[in-house]
Each structure stands twice: as structure tokens, then as C-alpha cells.
């Protein structure tokens, strides 16, 4: 199979360099004695390409009705977006000094060879308390 992500990545790096990011893969919850829950994650270092959302990306997620900071991210491999009814997802990425929740898979190629996902910047606890 042709490595389209690798070929395209070599051509776009001079204009839009890849970033090193952390992928926080949702791995269930830890339940405390008071029955409160804390999400658990598996952390991996990854390379990503970040872009602004295109008009077609925004059309695809139009029903989400969000007024937030969103980006399109290309990543090698498959990733699941947040899906509450099916109870999976909640994966996050850390780049640009912020946590970003994977909110939707926009494209997936080659049975998970690479993916384009929509991510939404999350508000930090310290920002929320101001």
C-alpha cells in the first residue's frame, strides 16, 4: 500500500512542520472511596500535522453547534472520536500548550493507516476557576 501520509507529509513540512504531541487514550475510570470517578489515560508521544478547519470540515461538523477553538489534525494510525451512546472515546491530544479533545473523525484511510480528526481545545481547571 502506498504511504500517502508519508508522501504528503514530506511535501508539506517546509510550510507546516509536524509537531510532537501527546496522545491521551481513554482507558476507563478509577473510582474513589466516595464513588467519584477520575478518567484514566494511556499516554503516547506522537507526530501530528495541525491545520485550520476548512470550510468542508466545518460543514461536516455543522450539527455540533460549538463556538470553540477547533483544529483539524492529521495523525498516523486510527483514532476514535468521543461517542457517548457507544461509551468510547474521550481521547485527547496535548499540543500548543493545551489539551484538545478528539470530537470527530473527519477522514480515515487504509483501515486506520492515517486519520484526519477534528479536535476542540479544552478549558484548563485553572482557567475555569477565574
Please give the share of residues in helix: 10-25%
Tally of contiguous helical segments: 3
Radius of gyration: 16 Å
Q: Topology as H/E string?
A: HEEHEEEEH
Structural class: mainly beta
Q: Averaging pLDDT over every residue, what do you get?
A: 79
Total number of β-strand segments? 6
Biggest sheet statistics? 6 strands, antiparallel, barrel
Query: Largest sheet, order of strands side by side?
Result: 1-2-3-6-5-4
- Please give the alpha-carbon distance between the first and last residues: 51 Å
Low-pLDDT regions: none
* Overall geometric form: globular
Q: Indicate the proportion of strand residues.
A: over 45%
Description:
By secondary structure, this protein is mainly beta. It is built from three helices and six strands, in the order H-E-E-H-E-E-E-E-H. It has helices at about 5-10, 55-60, 125-130; strands at about 20-30, 35-50, 70-75, 90-95, 100-110, 115-120. It has a six-stranded antiparallel barrel. The longest helix has 9 residues, at about 5-10. It is globular, with a radius of gyration of 16 Å.
Amino acid at each position: 500500500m502506498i504511504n500517502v501520509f508519508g508522501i504528503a507529509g514530506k511535501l508539506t513540512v517546509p510550510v507546516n512542520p509536524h509537531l510532537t504531541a501527546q496522545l491521551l487514550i481513554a482507558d476507563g475510570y478509577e473510582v474513589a472511596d466516595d464513588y467519584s470517578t477520575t478518567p484514566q489515560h494511556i499516554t503516547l508521544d506522537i507526530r501530528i500535522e495541525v491545520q485550520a478547519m476548512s470550510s468542508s470540515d466545518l460543514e461536516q461538523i455543522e450539527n455540533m453547534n460549538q463556538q470553540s477553538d477547533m483544529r483539524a489534525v492529521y495523525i498516523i494510525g486510527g483514532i476514535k472520536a468521543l461517542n457517548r451512546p457507544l461509551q468510547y472515546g474521550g481521547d485527547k491530544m496535548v499540543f500548543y500548550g493545551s489539551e484538545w479533545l478528539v470530537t470527530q473523525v473527519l477522514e480515515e484511510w487504509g483501515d486506520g493507516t492515517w486519520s484526519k480528526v477534528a479536535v476542540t481545545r479544552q478549558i484548563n481547571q485553572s482557567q475555569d476557576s477565574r
